[in-house]
């Protein structure tokens, strides 16, 4: 019984890794993970430890072997490899959102420049877009959604604290780091991927609107 249960768990983890690798390759194919950038993680239901992408790996070549298993505070378990420098942000997001089981962090042209452009107003405000219904729990386009923008600090614990303070008072599906990239998450790998696509679509809409106003 115990052996079969353990085997079932390991098979499920392997399946999740394989599914996640496909998503990582998809994000890379869109040009959303250049030059070995970006980091991703997932965890099983009920688990506090999580799997995170190994640092410095070309995401077009990413494989199931490139995941590290880490504790809630980001320390590798029986592994000498280096996890992402931003593992602490993943830890904070999982603590803030117990329903989250996947986190995706992308570096795209649009999330880099839009986050810089709107940094002074501290957020990107989105309303009346049909695709807003792609965010979990959003049922109508007649909604105002705020994507917060944080300054690009290399002090990850300080940035994680800023995110935590913001989340105590505001609903959040994603956030931007100015000149850096975007974080989003979901209850499944598929939901997190959908949130990435929603944000990137909306960033392009906002960018093209700025061009039309010129």
How would you describe this protein?
- With 214 residues, this protein is an alpha+beta fold.
- The protein is built from five helices and eight strands; from the N terminus they run H-E-E-E-H-E-H-E-E-H-E-E-H.
- The protein has one domain: 3-Layer(aba) Sandwich (L-fuculose-1-phosphate Aldolase).
- An eight-stranded mixed sheet has the order 3-2-1-4-8-7-6-5, with helices on both faces.
- Helix 2 runs parallel beside helix 4.
Work out the strand percent: 15-25%
**What's the total helix number?**
5
Average predicted confidence as pLDDT: 93
CATH topology: L-fuculose-1-phosphate Aldolase
Q: Name the CATH superfamily classification.
A: Class II aldolase/adducin N-terminal domain
Uncertain segments are none
Record keyword descriptors for this entry:
214 residues, alpha+beta, L-fuculose-1-phosphate Aldolase, 8-stranded mixed beta sheet, 5 helices, globular
